[in-house]
Design brief:
Layout lengths: L10 H10 L2 E7 L5 E7 L1 E3 L2 E6 L4 H8 L2 E13 L13 E16 L2 H15 L16 H6 L1 E15 L6 H14 L4 H11 L6
Antiparallel strand pairs: 1-2, 1-5, 3-4, 4-7, 5-6, 6-7
């Protein structure tokens, strides 16, 4: 059963999360009908996911045979131990995270301008410090490479986002988790506390 309190329907929140992430998991069905999950870099722009690679290989072969795919992006913020809220029972142990899952159609991009735009966004994400000429279909240096590389667009038909940060907890338990994170001081614990306060603010008394 899906928990409604964890769902995110704000497009700005969803886009901001996807812009921060560079890695996701593509689910396809291979030629023998077996499921296959492929880790890869991606960008999200214009409401679509883009990835690139070789024209050959199992990934592209699977897409040509079955263009219905699934794509998932997830980021785990913190593990939440059970003893933050219960000194005996294991049940409260969990993790806090953001995730997006899309079901849709994978389309092989042939337009060089669209390829260039997607790859230039890749570069902005993966090499934000610059140090390269912008990817442009009109640049003769890039045209051979643009023709040689495969770029795939995933057009989502269903897209769901789940940001889990204790929205289902009672205020007493939420306070206990926040206190536990603040005392632990792990790498992303302070960030997790900020997400908890953002997505499940305390009610004023």
């Amino acid at each position: 059963m899906r928990r409604k309190e964890f769902k995110v329907e704000n497009e700005e929140e969803l886009t901001a999360f996807l812009d921060e992430m560079s890695f996701g998991f593509l689910g396809v069905t291979d030629g023998e009908g077996r499921p296959r999950v492929i880790p890869l870099n991606f960008v999200y722009t214009g409401g679509c996911f883009y990835f690139h690679g070789s024209h050959a290989g199992g990934k592209m072969e699977a897409i040509r045979k079955m263009d219905k795919v699934c794509f998932t992006v997830a980021d785990e913020f913190a593990l939440i131990p059970s003893y933050f809220t219960d000194p005996e029972m294991a049940c409260p142990a969990t993790s806090y995270f953001k995730s997006v899952t899309a079901f849709g159609t994978a389309e092989i991009v042939t337009d060089l301008g669209e390829k260039a735009a997607a790859l230039d966004k890749f570069m902005h994400k993966l090499q934000p410090e610059g140090g390269y000429e912008p990817v442009d279909a009109e640049n003769p240096k890039y045209r051979p490479a643009l023709k040689a590389v495969a770029v795939v667009r995933i057009v989502p038909e269903e897209l769901t986002a789940k940001f889990k940060f204790g929205q289902n907890l009672k205020e007493e338990d939420r306070s206990a988790v926040i206190s536990g994170l603040e005392a632990r001081g792990g790498e992303r614990d302070a960030e997790t506390v900020e997400m908890m306060k953002k997505f499940c603010p305390f009610h004023s008394s």
